[in-house]
Amino acid sequence: MRRLVLGTARVGKPVVVSVEDVHWIDATSEALLESLAESLGGTAMLLVATYRAGYRPPWVNTSYATQVALPPLSPHDSRHVVRAVMGSHVMPESVTEQLLKRAEGNPFFLEELSRVALVPGAPAVPDTVHAVLQTRIDRLSDVPRQLLQTAAVIGREVPKTLLQATGQAVESLAGLDELKHSEFLHERPSASGPVYVFKHALTQEVAYASVPSERQRTLHCAVGRALESRGGPTRSSRTTWSAPTSGAPRCRTS
Question: Where are the domains of the chain?
């Protein structure tokens, strides 16, 4: 990949590489980005990376790197986000003000809060983005909620074929439409079939944490067996064979 990107940039064709949520990056991918950053000089390439405060990219001190701190959304822009989520629904001004105050300009938190407030008779606005996501997951019907939890065990990116291989019934896969409509997952085409991607890493995190421990073990085993049948584990899988606690039954594989 590095040779392909740099080769294209060096023949005079402008290249833009954009990577989001670099604070979640694994060591191998971080090394690749660092290598790209170190090779930018004299090429027609722009590398754009977004990350949260607390993460420090290894290339940030180079002379050609510029770091831009993004401020919170203004109240005006925050209202635009709320209106975009609400669509034709009308929200009382008092509720809108509560959402803006709680989100403090965080666009993801504001969007998720707005989705919670869309439900008629919604209780008090949750205090944290984790609580907001948990509230939305709890409101799912059984089939899509269990499907989302299975997907969370698999990883941030979930091939439909792997979901099927974990033993999901054909009818339960219809719950994917609800998960896409609710924007828990986005669908991305691939050569081997659809891949479902969690909208945000926090969504996967909260969905995973919502799985009871016994079901977690069952799902880890199912995902592990499915991965083995496909030729081995993939980078996106959260399954670890050392995961069972002391005294817990371990996965049996053929």
Answer: 1-70, 75-126, 142-229
Q: What's the fold here for domain 142-229?
A: Arc Repressor Mutant, subunit A (1.10.10)
Identify the three-state secondary structure at position 135: helix
**pLDDT tens across 207-250, in order?**
999 998 888 888 888 888 888 877 655 444 444 433 334 344 45
Higher pLDDT, 254 or 157: 157
Q: Spell out a b/e string for 34-52, using b for 16 or more CB atoms within 10 Å of the CB, else e.
A: eebbebbeebebebebebe
Given a contact cutoff of 8 angstroms between Cβ atoms, the answer to whether 46 and 17 are in contact is: yes
Q: Residues of 161-192 as b/e, b for ≥16 C-beta within 10 angstroms?
A: ebbebbebeeebeebbebbeebebbeeeeeee
Which residues in the chain belong to E strands, given as ranges? Answer: 15-19, 45-49, 157-159, 185-188, 195-198
The string of DSSP letters for 64-80 reads T----PPPPPPHHHHHH
Angle formed by the axes of helices 142-154 and 201-209, nearest 10°? 110
| Whole-angstrom distance, CA of residue 6 vs CA of residue 169 | 45
Residues 6+ apart with CB under 8 A from 161: 192, 193, 230
